[in-house]
Amino acid sequence: MDWKRKLRKEGYLELDGLRIELSLDNTFMDIDYIPRVLVYSEATGRWHVLRNPIPKGETLEESWDNAVEVLDAIARGEVRPELEDSSVEEQLITVLRSLTRFENQ
């Protein structure tokens, strides 16, 4: 199973000291939920929220598909991840690119 399908099916990936999770968030005073990607770094010992814009879908499934598309764009080098820690950004890029390279072999 490729990493994108696995992430969508299981809701998370654990790779090389990172845990990448699909989540939902609601903005203050808003009952509408928006998709989020959370990244736990063993190196920092904390969670980081991916701040790249993720388009809200018509359904929960579509929203999470959009989140996976943002991660795929990061893996392809089209988008740079926006996290509050540049070392975690670099680690995320490395992990996602290695998955994509492995997938294409």
What is the total domain count?
Answer: 1
Q: Considering DSSP H and I runs of 4 or more, what fraction of the residues is helical? A: 40-55%
End-to-end gap: 14 Å
Main beta sheet strand tally, sense and closure:
4 strands, antiparallel
Strand order of the largest sheet: 1-2-3-4
E-strand count:
4
Assign the structural class, choosing from mainly alpha, mainly beta, alpha/beta, alpha+beta, or little secondary structure. alpha+beta
**What is the helix tally?**
3
Gross morphology = globular
N to C succession of SSEs: HEEEEHH
Brief summary:
The chain has 105 residues and is of the alpha+beta class. It is 41% helix and 25% strand.
Describe this structure in words.
By secondary structure, this protein is an alpha+beta fold. The chain has one domain. The protein is 41% helix and 25% strand. The protein has three helices and four strands, in the order αββββαα. The protein has helices at 3-10, 60-75, 86-104; strands spanning 12-15, 18-26, 33-41, 46-49. It has a four-stranded antiparallel sheet with strand order 1-2-3-4. Strand 3 (33-41) and strand 4 form a beta hairpin. Helix 2 packs across helix 3. The longest helix is centred in the C-terminal third of the chain and has 19 residues, at 86-104. The protein starts with a helix and ends with a helix. The mean pLDDT is 90.
